[in-house]
Amino acid sequence: MEQFNHVSIIKKANTYFDGKVTSRTVLFEDGTKKTLGIMLPGEYEFSSDLKEEMDILDGHLEYKLQGEDWKVINGSGVFYVPAKEKFQLKIYSVVDYCCSYITE
After folding, report:
1. Distance from first CA to last CA of the chain, Å, rounded?
2. Rounded to an integer, what distance in angstroms lies between the CA atom of residue 92 and that of residue 70?
3. Which residues on neighbouring strands pair with residue 104, listed in sequence order?
4. Which CATH number does the domain housing residue 14 bear?
5. Would you say 54 and 91 are in contact if contact means Cβ atoms under 8 Å apart?
6. Is residue 100 part of a domain?
7. Tens-place pLDDT, residues 10-39
8. Which InterPro entries match (predicted)?
């Protein structure tokens, strides 16, 4: 999906790691939520409450889910983070991403 229609956006940014990772929250009419953001080069660890779909729109990174090996995305790609788990990122270039929160 290239464009989101009929949404609300929370103006205040979500800021992590001294501003090296930022995002904006997008709320949909059906109650679903996504964040659109940018990650600058560095190494980060996040935890998830809900299952997440990480849609990498552009950039070069490695990601590691619990119990798995490091995997590379160079350009675009998607990975899923299980609910209640941590994941690690190594960001090599500016990464443009969209995170979808999945409530199953």
Report:
1. 21
2. 14
3. none
4. 2.60.120.10
5. no
6. no
7. 999 999 999 999 999 999 999 999 999 999
8. Ppnp (IPR009664), RmlC-like_jellyroll (IPR014710), RmlC_Cupin_sf (IPR011051)
